[in-house]
Here is the input.
Amino acid sequence: MSLYIKEIRGVVNSEISNEFTSNLGNVIGNFLTPGKEIVVGRDSNKQSQMIKRSITAGILAAGINVIDFGVAPIPAVHHGAKNIYNVDVMVTVSASHLHADEVAIKIFSDYEISLERHAEKVPWDRIGQTLYTQNHMMDYIDSALKHVDTDVVKNLAPKIVVDCANGSTVTFLPKILGKLGCETILLGCQHTGASASKFADPTPQSVSLVSNLVKAVGADMGIALDNDGDRIVFTDENGKIIKDQTVLGIFAREALLENPKGYVVSSVVTSMSMDEVVSKYGGRIIKTPVDFVLKGTVQNKAVFGGDEPGMYVFPEFQECFDAIFSAVKMLEIMCRYNKPLSKLAEDLPEYPRTMFSVKCEHESKEKTIQDLKEKMGRIGTLNTVDGVRIDMEDSFILVRPSRFEPLLRVYIEARSPEKLQKLRSMMEEMLSSV
Here is the structure.
């Protein structure tokens, strides 16, 4: 299990330089006993290749061996790290979802790693060595298929449109769908080696391509993944995008049908509909800060965890956000009940919802959130797990600081469009005065 995840983002060759990442790898390696191993993987972008090599060099200089997964999605790297090599630490590098000139470095570990220490290098005769793995892809695929009812999918053989964003899932998801007997129409399923994938994250533009193709070919479902395999967007047979909160409800309901009275973990962003679904099917919901959904899922031995945007974890398979397995699981649910995705979505409550951002410099965020707590605490039940959330009988408001950008994120949900608009106007006025 990987309880701790640290993420570092920055501009390549500026904030994230080879020197910086070599030192970073060195610091990470210093937390392990010499002779131990760290798994490293990356997405298909060339800047990720360069940065991964620098991190690898730093790890080796700390006397730690590196198991190089090459180009592989995060779920496959995590699965191999735990199930093949049983290592405590893994590092992945991928193009940032926010900006094309940035990379995101993720450090997964079973214990807290502090990066605020001096990098220490071992003598030349004790440096680590690089080992290359070849069997992680088929190991992941075989394991994923063992955790779903493959026969029920093969019997219906649905037609699926898939967009892999020319990312690291290119050699994984199409192969799994082929083994399930699905007819697949592929978009963005080639490794381009470009500086940055045009659609590192599923966007309205990229998803619209999937949506239009679903309608054109009469497919049963459309799938759009990000470049490193931990985010996914679904469209139904009509080409309609299924909202993240509805997908969460579908997966949570199924998990609770299979595991009555289980825990479901999501963040403070989660919809009121999630509370209703979990309660209806006998479970208990736990709401964490946005960046702690995975940790909360592991610590609470939950049967399912997930959050926006399109990130889902199925602990019975592995404790990692996994877009590939999410696609396979959704196929299993559709085929098990022989229902189109639109019908699965219709069976769940869905409420009007809006989200917008307000500029706020990093140094002002703490005071602004404190001011909002005092003002918003008068109108509902206060939750300060992450930012400030106010729950009312028919609605909620959440304001939380962005981790990477000088912004406050505002989420509002209500049972009626009229109430939603009223609350938005109120919050826009309130935020203009703090």
In short: The chain is about 35% helix and 25% strand.
